[in-house]
Design brief:
40% helix; alpha/beta; Rossmann fold; two-stranded parallel sheet
Length: 270
């Protein structure tokens, strides 16, 4: 069996690729190193022999909705459509728990648009929570670096914003199963249902390293303004202003029933 995986050098994509390879599948990596990105013509991908596609890629370099829509939305829909036309039988689109009707972040809004197109094409749609593992990347990696850097940290508001955690291996197992069966007709929320406040996530990370940590509460709007300012002058920041919106304005009622129906469980974040 062969699976094409986009974004296979990213944190989630690389974890998924490793899992599929351990299960004995051949992986076709699609990433910038192999000459592929969301602006590329998907018809140029060597689809022959590809049984499944897991679309993890997302271009975070985009600024503004128009560029984001052209690259991430239109590029993703074009990729999924081409895969279908090329006879790929199982397709999984990786969305986000930040994607839901009424979400505030541009990232979430873009994912919702692609979700609708993906479901209409008979693809599986998976909304992972905050992904963690032995060597986390992405947002979880940024939180880990912050927890290791100091014992006194600024905190978004009172730190009570709920997060839902998904271990990388549990997520990869879910995707592996979806590449072998007919998909549900609705998005799958992939995370442990325990609500962990943002401050609790960082405290648990610090505790793993035998560290205590204290927080300085700062209104989220001030942090958002600071991040937007850094982005305007192109100064690197620990995370994006749009990611902040996704953390502050989470899905108020995620549905965790589908993974259990697929006999997949997500471990607690300890």
């Amino acid at each position: 069996m062969r699976c094409a995986i986009t974004g296979s050098t990213g944190y989630v994509g690389s974890a998924v690729a490793r899992y599929f390879e351990v299960q004995g599948w051949d992986v076709l990596p699609l990433n910038r190193r192999t000459g592929w990105d969301l602006n590329a013509d998907p018809a140029a991908i060597p689809w022959q022999g590809v049984d499944a596609l897991v679309h993890c890629a997302y271009d975070f370099r985009c600024s503004g909705w128009e560029e984001l829509r052209r690259v991430n939305v239109d590029g993703s829909i074009r990729l999924l459509k081409t895969a279908r036309e090329q006879g790929v039988s199982r397709i999984v689109f990786i969305s986000s728990i930040s994607a839901f009707e009424g979400c505030r972040s541009l990232y979430g809004k873009a994912k919702v648009v692609v979700e609708k197109a993906a479901l209409a094409m008979g693809c599986a749609v998976v909304r992972p929570g905050l992904v963690h593992g032995a060597k986390p990347g992405g947002m979880m990696g940024a939180l880990g670096r912050a927890a290791a850097a100091a014992s006194l940290l600024p905190m978004i508001g009172d730190g009570s914003y709920p997060q839902y955690l998904a271990h990388e291996e549990d997520l990869a197992r879910l995707l592996f199963l979806l590449c072998q069966k007919d998909p549900p007709s609705t998005p799958i929320t992939a995370a442990n249902p325990e609500k962990v406040p943002l401050s609790g996530v960082i405290r648990r990370i610090a505790a793993r390293n035998g560290r205590g940590i204290r927080f300085i509460p700062i209104p989220w709007r001030l942090i958002y303004l600071g991040l937007k300012t850094l982005e305007t002058v192109r100064v690197p920041a620990p995370f994006r202003s749009d990611s902040l919106l996704g953390m502050v304005f989470q899905n108020p009622a995620p549905d965790f029933t589908l993974p259990a129906a697929l006999e997949v469980s997500f471990r607690r974040f300890e």
